[in-house]
Amino acid sequence: MLGNYLKAIEGYSSVIHKIENALLYDPTNAALKGDLAILLQTRADCIAKRDYKSDLMDATRDYIRSMELFPNNYQAHAGIIHALEGMQQYAKAKKWNAAFVERFEYTGETILKHPDKKSLTKRWNTLKMAGIRDYLQRYVGAVNIRTDIKQARFLGGNDEFIVAGSDCGHMFIWDSGNGNIVKLLKADNKILNCVAPHPTAPLIASSGIENVIKFWSPFEDVSF
């Protein structure tokens, strides 16, 4: 089931990226905006069900973007309510629920899953907050459970990329703007811990469990 969500999120993200690029050249295209609103809401549904740490925050961002494009998106509004409940933001969830009832003239049973719960923020601790805290951007895929010396660095003349090691031995390179993985390099047979981009040259040094340090540089005709 998790694999299905991962593939779906990857597919939706690819199409969303293409539509966002198209809107740069045609920003008033209503059809593109409508498609983008639906795709954002659908991707948010998948992200919320994937259940990685901070996924509910990520899903909420997509739901809000969807509603900015299409304010009467029933599913996106409901998704925000459920995500807020999942993050124990019960007071905010009730406010969004009240707006939902008013906006859609909803007369059915409450869509709140926990209508009687209150936000007990004083009982939160670092462990509980780890899965729901806010962030500027997130880069998903790398694993760090076997060692504690992983690092992530900016890469590129304009910090276009983020690079990091992983327990799987791969070097991950993400687009720093949208969080998409743009390159995977098998850099260590066991675990890749350290990556260090050169400050001026297109060169990366990497080290892991193997007893060697490797240097990585692109071919002249390769770009990503």
TrEMBL record:
GO terms for cellular component: Cul4-RING E3 ubiquitin ligase complex; cytoplasm. Keywords: Repeat, WD repeat. InterPro entries: DCAF8 (IPR045151), TPR-like_helical_dom_sf (IPR011990), WD40/YVTN_repeat-like_dom_sf (IPR015943), WD40_repeat_dom_sf (IPR036322), WD40_rpt (IPR001680). Transmembrane segments: none annotated. The keyword Transmembrane does not apply. The keyword Repeat applies. It comes from the Eukaryota. This is Uncharacterized protein. It comes from Panagrolaimus davidi.
